[in-house]
Amino acid sequence: MIFKMSDSEESLITMPVLQKRPKLSLTIHNDGSGDEMDDISSTGSTILDDSTSRSETPLSGGRRFGRGKYKGKKVKLQYRCTNFIREDHKQPIFGVQMYPQYHSDDPMIFAAVGHTRATIYECLEGGKIKLLQCYNDPCPDESFYCCAWTFNEDTGEPLLAVAGLRGIIRIISTTTQQCLKEFIGHGNAVNELKYHPKDPNMLLSVSKDHTMRLWNVKTDTLVAKFGGVDGHRDEVLSADFNIQGTKIISCGMDHSLKVWRTDTPELLGAMRESYTYNSKNLVRQFPTLCQNFPQFSTRDIHRNYVDCVRWLGQFILSKSCENCIICWKSGSIDDKEVWKPNESKVSVIHCFDYKDCDIWYMRFSLDFHQKMMALGNQVGRIYLWDLDVDDPAQSKCTILSHSKCFTAIRQTCFSDDGSILLAVSDDGSIWRWDRQKN
C-alpha cells in the first residue's frame, strides 16, 4: 500500500491519508528451490593491500571490542544471499534501517528510503521479503537520504523519521499510516538522522547547512543546535551518539571529526524543559540552546570528505574516500582517560582496508553487539569484518558478492541478532543476506 504524504509546511499537524495511491511494482527474486542463486559468491579473505554529488553527486587493552557477547562457539562469518528485490523507480536507495526487536518474537521490520519514497518491509522465513507500506512524497524534487526508527512511549507504536534533499524531517506512524509531523528548520539537505539511545523522543539531524539539530519530536521543539564558531566549516555528513548518550561524534566535508558533549548542565536542562513547553499555549518560542564549541576536534585522521562515523566503545570508527575505515582514539595509545578537554593528539589503532570505494556517501554499519561491521563498495561487493577479537589487527574480512549486484551499495544494516544483513544499492535494489549456521 502506498500513502501520499501531505506537502504542508505551514504547521505540524496530523495529516490524513490521501485516497490517491500511485502504483508500486517490485521485481522480487526469491531463493525458491535455490537454482536462481547458484551464482552467489561468499568468500573469506583478509585484505592485505594498503591501499560534488553523492558519488561525486547525489545520484551518481585486553578487553574485547563491542558491548555484548554472542553465545556459542565462535566461527567464521558466513552469509548467503537469499533474496533481492528492485523498486520500480530504479533510483538510488540511500538508506536502510531495521526496527529494533524489543522482544524475541517481534517481526523483523525494516525501512528503505530513496527517490521520493520511504518503503517498509518485513523479513519472513525462507529468505522472503514482504512489502508492508510505502509512503510517497508529493514533491517530485524530494530525494530521501536517511531514516531512523523510534516508538511512541504512550502507545508503543513504531515511528519512522525520514529526511533528505529538501531538509524537511517527516515523522511517519506505521500504525495509523499517516505522516504525523514535519520539522522544518535546516537550510539545506539532511544527511543523517539518529535517535538518542536513552530518550526515544530526542532526534538528532545532520545537515548540509553545516549544523546539527536536536529535536524533541513529542513536543515539537528544537532543543539545541550544534555548530557556529568552532563547528563544521562545510556540509556535515554523519553523526552518532555513544551508548550512554553523553557524547556525539560528527564528521563532514571539511575533513574534520568533532566530539560534542550532551551531558552538560545546560543541555540536560534544555532537554528537560522541552518536555514542559507547549507551543500552543505559549506565545514565546522555545529557547533553543546553541552549542558552538565541541569538546574535541581533529583533522588529522582523514584527508578527504569524512562521510560515516560510529562509536565503538570509547573508540571511533570513521571512513573517508580513501578505501579504509580507521579505528582511532584521542590522546596516546596508553592513555586510559579519553576525550580529555583541550586534547589535540590522536592515535590510530587500526585501519580496515577494502577496495573500490572511493566515492562518498557510502555508509558502513555495526551489529547491535558491535561484533560485526559491514560496508558495501561501488561495484556491489560487501566487506564484512569480525570484530569479536582481542586485537583489531586480527580481524578477518569476508567478502560477499553476487553476479547480479554490480552497482554501488550505499548502506548496510544488521538485524539485532545478526542473522540478517541488508544492503541497498544505486539501482533501486535491496539485498538480503542470511547468516549460515555452522
UniProtKB/TrEMBL annotation:
**Compartments, record wording:** Nucleus
Task: Tell me the superkingdom of the source.
Answer: Eukaryota
Keyword Repressor part of the UniProt annotation:
yes
As given in the record, the signal peptide range reads: none
UniProt entry tagged with the keyword Nucleus: yes
Q: Which UniProt keywords are present, listed alphabetically?
A: Nucleus, Repeat, Repressor, Transcription, Transcription regulation, WD repeat
> Where does each WD repeat begin and end?
183-225, 229-270, 414-438
Polar residues: compositionally biased ranges: 40-58
Q: Which InterPro entries match?
A: PcG_WD-repeat (IPR051243), WD40/YVTN_repeat-like_dom_sf (IPR015943), WD40_repeat_CS (IPR019775), WD40_repeat_dom_sf (IPR036322), WD40_rpt (IPR001680)
Family matches, as SMART domains = WD40
Stretches for region Disordered: 29-63
Q: Write out the GO cellular component annotations.
A: nucleus
By sequence similarity, the record places it as follows: Belongs to the WD repeat ESC family.
What is the recorded name of this protein?
Answer: Embryonic ectoderm development
Give the originating organism.
Sinanodonta woodiana
Ranked from the top, the taxonomy reads: Eukaryota, Metazoa, Spiralia, Lophotrochozoa, Mollusca
